[in-house]
Structure formats: structure tokens, C-alpha cells
Design a protein that fits this description.
326 residues, alpha+beta, 4-stranded antiparallel β-sheet
Length: 326
């Protein structure tokens, strides 16, 4: 998404005066008794139709792409500008972007307004809610990795392998990883079901969730929308998981709201692919080697030695009641 065009509707303030046709009919007003009305100030309104037309032309968006102006409010970061949020979507996929538009609609600012007194990725950190998500690592760690993944995505499988083999071994106390769901349903038909199942299993303990995590990625090539549940129900009791509780939770989709919340947050972040990691809010898209990830982690660890403005605030693991349990 690029530039916003804002149309300003001018407000004409017209002074209405009564003039007699001759001087004898003129109305005389005693000095000090006249009341003068103050001009009414009105805020120009965003012409969303023109804005959307402009964006379609700018980004070569075809008619099947839905473009919606979601929000417009005065910016606290840039005086005299409005902060505008726009969403573009096609089917289940969507993304959002922010723009800053001047009051007269002539000036557009793209990008982020940064405050040097706070972490440069403070917005991303505030949007991503890690509490209650499956985690690896030590509570209170100075570096947090929030990973958006899709159990049917082959690149996610590669990234998962890299993290599982290296993260806790290299950083036993300095880094905490949280896993978030972003199933790309239009290309991965069983990804949402796997995300729902993973959350159901997480109710029975984080260690069980990570067993499921590793099993799903290991079986990725043979799982289908049709055999996911029977394969899972055969695997679960062999690995210490209560199959009855799992089946109840999975069949009633009791954890689907959490999956939907992750998807909504991903869209607000403008995320359009998996895997995507946020290392203390810094976006790292695609499947990355351990050397690449370690470089960024080390940079953030060094920065946090003095900055101390990011890291794990989720405190600890959250124990939730198991849905369907008596």
C-alpha cells in the first residue's frame, strides 16, 4: 500500500446581513447590544471513495481485491496529521497499513513515526500478545521471539527444525519463544484444524503441545484434511495425552477463537506469509538459517543490556482449565 489522497470539503462561512431598501427602514442597534456568532470550525472529512480509487491505481489492485478504510483519527505522533488505517484483502488473506494524512489532504507520510526514547518496534511488541501461547525458554528473558507459523507450510517445518535444534541449547536463559498460529487456509486445507488441535493439546500441558508440534511437522507430507483427526487420535494416547478430552475440544472447536485472534493480529501487523518471526518486535520473514537468526538475537541482547525496553513480560506459563473435562 502506498499513498492516501484526502479530499477536503471546503466550508463556506457566509455572513448574512439585512439591508433596508432605504435608510428610513434600516434597523438601529444600540451600541454594545449586538451579538456576533463565532464561525463554526469543521474538520474536513476523508473522501474514502477517492482514496480507494487512488490506491487501486497506485498499487494496480484489481476489482476482486477489497479495499477498506478501517480507521482515521488524529495522530499523536505527527501534529496536524490524521493516522489512517487501510485494509486490502483477497479471500482469506489481508494486510493493513498506516498512513499519515495532512488536514488539507495534500501531504502523505508513509512509514513509521519513531520516538527515540522507546524501542524502535514498540508498536509490534504492543500488538503481539504472548500470554497463554505455548512457549520455550526462560520466563523473563530479555529477548522474545514471537513465531507465526502454519503446520502445513513446508518452510515453517524447516524453520521449526532450526529453532528446535538450536534455540534453547544456545540461549538457555536469554531467549523465550512463543508460538502463534497463522494458517493460510486458501492453500493449506488442514492448517486451521491442526492449529485448533494444537491449542486443545496445550490445555494438557506445554510439553504435550511441543510433542504435537514436532509430530505434525514430521508427518506433514502424509497428513490430509481427512486423516488428520484419526491419525492424531491414534498418536495422542501413546504420548500421554488424554484422547477423550482432546476429542471433545477438537470436535467442538473450543480453541478456534484463539486461532482467529492470532489471525487478526497477524493482519494488523501486515503479515502476509509464513513463517514470520518477531525478535523483540523486529520482523524476520521467511525460513532463516540459525546463523542469520543468531546474529539478530545477539544484537538485541547487546541492545537490551542498557536499553531494557523489551523482553518477556508474559512472566510465566499460564495454566488453563481443560475444555470438556469433568
Amino acid at each position: 500500500m502506498q499513498t492516501f489522497l484526502r479530499a477536503v470539503v471546503p466550508v463556506a462561512l457566509t455572513a448574512l446581513c439585512l439591508f433596508g431598501q432605504d435608510a428610513k427602514k434600516a434597523v438601529k442597534i444600540k451600541p454594545g447590544t449586538a451579538k456576533v456568532s463565532s464561525p463554526v470550525e469543521t474538520t474536513p472529512k476523508l473522501d474514502t471513495a477517492k482514496l480507494i480509487d487512488y490506491l487501486r491505481h497506485l498499487n494496480t489492485w484489481t476489482p476482486e481485491i477489497t479495499v477498506v478504510v478501517k480507521d482515521s483519527q488524529p495522530s499523536t505522533a505527527l501534529k496536524g496529521f490524521d493516522e489512517v488505517t487501510v485494509r486490502a484483502s483477497l479471500g482469506e488473506r489481508s494486510m493493513e497499513q498506516r498512513y499519515y494524512v495532512s488536514a488539507d489532504g495534500k501531504t502523505i507520510v508513509r512509514g513509521d513515526i519513531l520516538d527515540t526514547t522507546v524501542h524502535p518496534f514498540a508498536r509490534e511488541i504492543s500488538l503481539i500478545q504472548n500470554v497463554g501461547h505455548p512457549s520455550l525458554g526462560t520466563p523473563g528473558a530479555p529477548v522474545v521471539i514471537s513465531l507465526y507459523t502454519d503446520f502445513q507450510c513446508p518452510y515453517c517445518k524447516d524453520q521449526a527444525k532450526v529453532l528446535r535444534e538450536n534455540l534453547t541449547q544456545t540461549y538457555p536463559k536469554q531467549v523465550r519463544l512463543f508460538l502463534h498460529d497463522y494458517p493460510l487456509e486458501q492453500i493449506h486445507p488442514w492448517a486451521r484444524s491442526a492449529a485448533i488441535a494444537g491449542r486443545c493439546i496445550a490445555f494438557q500441558g506445554e510439553e504435550n503441545f511441543w510433542k504435537f508440534h514436532d509430530w505434525v511437522f514430521d508427518k506433514q507430507g502424509t497428513l490430509t484434511a481427512e486423516n488428520l483427526k484419526p491419525e492424531m487420535m491414534s498418536w495422542a494416547p501413546k504420548n500421554g495425552i488424554d484422547a477423550l478430552q482432546l476429542s471433545r475440544c477438537y470436535d467442538t472447536k473450543e480453541t478456534e477463537a484463539g486461532v482467529n485472534q492470532d489471525i487478526e493480529t497477524a493482519q494488523k501487523l501486515g503479515l502476509n506469509s509464513t513463517p514470520t518471526l518477531y525478535i523483540n518486535g523486529r520482523k524476520i520473514a521467511g525460513s532463516n538459517s540459525w546463523e542469520q537468526l543468531k546474529r539478530v538475537i545477539d544484537l538485541e541482547l547487546k541492545y537490551q543490556e542498557t536499553a531494557k525496553n523489551a523482553g518477556d513480560t508474559a512472566c510465566c506459563s499460564v495454566t488453563l482449565a481443560t475444555p470438556g473435562a469433568k
